[in-house]
Amino acid sequence: MPFWNKELETLPRQKLEKLQFARLKRVLTRVYQKVPHYRKKFQDAGVNPSKLKSLEDIKCFPFTTKEDLFVDYPYGLLTVTPEKVIRLHTSSGTTGKPKAIFFSKKDINNSAELIARCLVMTGATKGDILQNSMTYGLFTGAFVMHYGAEKVGILVIPAGPGNTERQINLMKDFGTTILHITPSYALYVASVLYEKGIDPRKELKLKRAYLGAEPYSEETRKKIENMLGIDIYNCYGLTEMNGPGVGFECPYKEGLHIWEDNFLMEIINPETGAPLPDGEIGELVLTTLNREAMPLIRYRTRDLTRIISEPCKCGRTHRRISRILGRSDDMFIVKGVNIFPQQIEQVLMGIKGVAQNYQIVLESYDEMIVKVEIDRELFDGKIEKLIKLKEEIVEKIRSATMVKPKVELLEPGTLPVSEGKAKRVIDKRTI
Amino acid sequence: MPFWNKELETLPRQKLEKLQFARLKRVLTRVYQKVPHYRKKFQDAGVNPSKLKSLEDIKCFPFTTKEDLFVDYPYGLLTVTPEKVIRLHTSSGTTGKPKAIFFSKKDINNSAELIARCLVMTGATKGDILQNSMTYGLFTGAFVMHYGAEKVGILVIPAGPGNTERQINLMKDFGTTILHITPSYALYVASVLYEKGIDPRKELKLKRAYLGAEPYSEETRKKIENMLGIDIYNCYGLTEMNGPGVGFECPYKEGLHIWEDNFLMEIINPETGAPLPDGEIGELVLTTLNREAMPLIRYRTRDLTRIISEPCKCGRTHRRISRILGRSDDMFIVKGVNIFPQQIEQVLMGIKGVAQNYQIVLESYDEMIVKVEIDRELFDGKIEKLIKLKEEIVEKIRSATMVKPKVELLEPGTLPVSEGKAKRVIDKRTI
Ligand SMILES: [Zn+2]
Ligand SMILES: [Zn+2]
After folding, report:
1. Whether residues A155 and A247 fall in one domain
2. Are strands B256-258 and B243-249 parallel, antiparallel or unpaired?
3. Among A353, A418, B98, B175, which residue's Cβ finds the most Cβ atoms within 10 Å?
């Protein structure tokens, strides 16, 4: 198993946490001293970095939300003078202005280091040829991957997205071995290859792909892997945290390693902000431990996941998160309990007899109706099977969410088919 | 006057030429040993790098044309193994395939060094904010500028082209001081600013712009400078030679300095390939003196210019070329003389009373008809003025081209107005 930085990637937990603590104290002190907005927030919360005694103490510090990024915009959260930053990246914000994240030279180099770890972790090496079909520009996706690959010594083809004919010619002419691409575009490129009668296994040298920028299912991964004859790795990132490379799958593909020497992770209840133990699903909160220009403290990602704290077979000591399960904004409340549609989905997709489509209908604050399409062959007149399936669904959802749902079994095709993002929750409640 | 690398930029000619010779010998030896296609070409021409005695001896070596780039495509001209290259850039070729130029890590760094010289030469410095509105991708334009600016410590906003509303917001929000942009898009952005009632001098912090990727006239430069209240610098480059940064104007703007420690330049007669002395217009031929992965020997750029060998007031010892006057493919022959439409244009634009539009019509190999639109107020019945003007035009064209033309004076609006690139030469000759 190759490593880019074996020492740091396999640092024993105790040492890793010691490093985290030292860096956490440093970054908290830094923003307290240099960023008026952070100082005021810390003071309002009655916390002071000098009193930090353990990693756990981070829980006393205030969160940073996307709204904080617009205070003293655009340079207000910098801990260095604007002359020290060499790169701006943005992502669409909730107001008219984009979120603006600035990088110093050290930050750019560091984000490339982290991607280099990811690339080498998946088996990429000097001699590989990476066709970067993400958009180069203000979004981080293409750039951060580009710099990381360059560091490893991989040949980068800065193709950008679109012009599928040209993408295919590049793969053929230059022997592309790795794609960095969105899942939807990967599917499209694969379909064009099939239309053209080009067998990727015979005529291309593709070995693997990194998919990002859009949510996609495990089924989509399998489908693209089969169509292209390649190995696909999930990656996780957000502009506020450098872009791609925050979390990345190792070859065991049982969750995404988060580089914990650079990011302190917490999972919280998105409603209350209370910390949740490892293994429970909640909102991912990240603190940059090694960023120079624009550190972010307890940044609320709005992404739902859970921490996998069991040691990974690959030998890396950095804990993993599960595939992102959704956005915390999707959460709803029934009987006073916070529920994520993804919890329901996880349950349903694990039950034999359940088909693809389902819908959660909320008519009151006391009841959750789950409409589930099931396999057509189950509607064969033998009602016992249906009753048993319904009971199984009710019980498993109750067990996962603590709320007993009303379940309706439907024939396939009954529920509306969505174009694009499926609308899973129909909330008919007022107030 | 600030310098990025004062020692090399002001190296005395004798030392500079000594450095050129050492590097020329090295690169010729390198391609002879490592590139079968070059070895064969050298052998066919009866030349051997070991016998090189002076810079002048380069004239015995064969040219490299764009057709050579497709021999043993795509890796055939590499002097390193493909594993050593980390970047591909392409530009549209004459065949279906693009020209493919590969860069090693050293080459990427070196191209950034050369751009850093250019940027600092024009007064750019740490603290500047460069909005890079060129297309990031397979073309070199945006990337090479990006890496050079990063090296200087300039904040780069990787805007890419298009989305003019956003471009303007970026300039306003982040205080952009430098634009890297095509001339046509610069004109468009300026016009949108005017429509919106935004006064660039008051509401923006723009100081200068680098225009590239399209030919444009001195009038266009002045117009954009006036509209935006900025200083515009011409730059010259081509993908085969790293992209931008081969030639760049210094603040005196009397030609573009070519970094002669990296590029050996010659001017040749594009018909015969014979060398032309400094000052004469011909095709620019460049040899890379410091490129690792893919050196090019006597590469025919097809670009027409002349060498300005007088010392520049800025103190740089690297010779200059004039603004690119056109493509050698535009050349035509009358009475056995090679003539470039740009020679005629230069003459006409310097004569008082001549308006914007003109056309060169060729009906035989012995005569050149030049149709010239002149100012409307000259058609006032006083024929003496017209006769005098016509005589002046005939004489000045004869003096510039050695061919006496037949000149026709026309009222403005008589000649067809072209959209996009003007068709200046109407060649009606057959055979
Ligand atoms: Zn692992
Ligand atoms: Zn100069």
Report:
1. yes
2. antiparallel
3. B98
